[in-house]
Amino acid sequence: MPRPFPDRHHPLPLPAALVALVLAVLTALLGPGATPARAATLTEVTGFGSNPGNLQMFRYVPDGLPAGRPLVVALHGCTQSAAGFYDDTGWNSWADRYGFALLLPQQRSANNATSCFNWFQSGDTARGQGEALSVKQMVDRMTADYGSDTARVYVTGLSAGGAMTSALAAAYPDVFAGAAVVAGIPAGCATSLLDAYTCMNPGRNLSAAQWGDKVRAADPGYTGPRPVVSVWHGSADTTVAPANMTELVEQWTDVHGTDATPEVSDTVAGHPHRVYRDAAGRDVVETYSLTGMPHGQAVDPGTGADQCGIAGQYFPDVNLCASRRIAAFWGLAGTTDPGPDPDPDPDPEPTPACFTATNYAQVAAGRAHQSLGFVYANGSNQAMGLYNIFTTHTLAETAPGYFELADAGCPPQ
């Protein structure tokens, strides 16, 4: 039997029965204590469908949010709560700033002793079944109540929530436009508790095609667009092995019909960052390997424009805000002006740097890329026309490495 992975900071006594062993294994997948609710605006919703997974539904909708705005689904880790994950990750601040709704499913201890999402049970990850269907029903309730844009629904999660994120992206490609797997595991890795041991550490090593087939099998016959995927993993994670990031890249690049060779290799706040593009030059997979970081989700507490979160165990401060970067990868950052920030920063956001040059020069400077003779802005992927020395555009760097067209003026109008 595979060995359990207890919390190395707070060793647990050796279990004496199978129930205790299961508790240790699942707590190891993400073991921070539940964070008390601190956000009075987070609201529980009942009556959202048959709820075969017996989950709870929480939502946050910024005041005055119009119809047609994006929706982000955020899945907590083991022993955590929806309210704690909402605050600690910083997703609440981005919902206010960029104008999107948040949906936070919550596990019940009746389903799982340590409140982990059951990512390793096929009856909870398959399309139309269990917890996966419960989350889908929650999304349907949000679109019915608030008119959320069904073309801009995204899902993210940490550890057990990250593994469930993989499963949801595979099972519901027609629902989710993007996913972000944080300290998680590829879709289809485990179908039982025993499988979960191996998937966590050391991880499974399959070919890209084998991983891709697991995604395709989750919704047979589907031929539409697949979610773009952002993958985050600490290089010092001893709970979920960093090798899982490599397997996730192989899985989702194969699904998108490209290879696992990055088109962009750079560093952000000292952490290696890679971007993988499809044949059309679109960013479809990205990774952040967080140098020296243990199991958890990266935060960067503070009042700066790109800072977020509350530091704590499993929310390490590594000078990089994962939720902000994920929002940018999905194209959510800077997509709207939702009105005054209810908790404004003491210092105004700096005016983005703008660059006016030919398409050829923009590509040469690393602000854009070309594919099949056409040029696209890095980050936003906005079309800029032909790759030549005659067409000129202005690009604004609205976040590090993220460029938007600003021909009408800087900042972008």
TrEMBL record:
<dbReference type="InterPro" id="IPR050955">
    <property type="entry name" value="Plant_Biomass_Hydrol_Est"/>
</dbReference>
<keyword id="KW-0378">Hydrolase</keyword>
<dbReference type="Pfam" id="PF10503">
    <property type="entry name" value="Esterase_PHB"/>
</dbReference>
<dbReference type="InterPro" id="IPR010126">
    <property type="entry name" value="Esterase_phb"/>
</dbReference>
<protein>
    <recommendedName>
        <fullName>Feruloyl esterase</fullName>
    </recommendedName>
</protein>
<keyword id="KW-0732">Signal</keyword>
<dbReference type="GO" id="GO:0005576">
    <property type="term" value="C:extracellular region"/>
</dbReference>
<dbReference type="InterPro" id="IPR029058">
    <property type="entry name" value="AB_hydrolase_fold"/>
</dbReference>
<dbReference type="GO" id="GO:0016787">
    <property type="term" value="F:hydrolase activity"/>
</dbReference>
